[in-house]
Write a structure and sequence with these properties.
Length: 137
């Protein structure tokens, strides 16, 4: 008989789905993506997993980078701060995935786009979430 295995969720999919809805509900319906779109919209938020660890046998703690682009430095800072506030309250069940905690590991920083010079702010968080158990029989 096969032992159950735990598969960790796609953390970027969970977080981008949550942020799309939360930003729209906050009156800021901007694209939330995992890659820089082409063509690039004037305002968007990129979410990217840059590491992290398996926290327990059944949970993951991915480190996620958030990059907010906008037309001006102030607008990029505002978008990053709104996303930061929303990430802080992500714990709960998100698209069927239990999210236990969100812990900031890098506060907002001015980080102009190195290719275009476009205004951009970034921050980072670790998001502790539960995996899904299944029997591979």
């Amino acid at each position: 008989m096969a032992r159950p295995v735990v598969v960790m969720p796609d953390a970027v999919a969970v977080v981008t789905g949550y942020l799309r809805g939360a930003l729209a509900a906050a009156g800021e319906p901007v694209p939330v993506v995992s890659r820089v779109p082409n063509p690039r919209p004037p305002r968007f938020l990129r979410v990217r997993r840059v590491g992290g660890i398996r926290q327990t046998v059944v949970s993951d703690r991915p480190r996620i980078d958030f990059h907010a682009w906008a037309e001006t430095e102030a607008a990029a800072a505002d978008l990053a701060e709104l996303a930061r506030a929303l990430v802080a309250v992500i714990p709960g069940v998100r698209d069927g995935v239990t999210v236990y905690t969100a812990r900031e590991v890098g506060g907002p920083q001015w980080l102009p786009d190195d290719v275009t010079g476009s205004p951009r702010y970034a921050f980072a968080a670790e998001i502790h979430m539960r995996g899904n158990t299944f029997n591979p029989s």
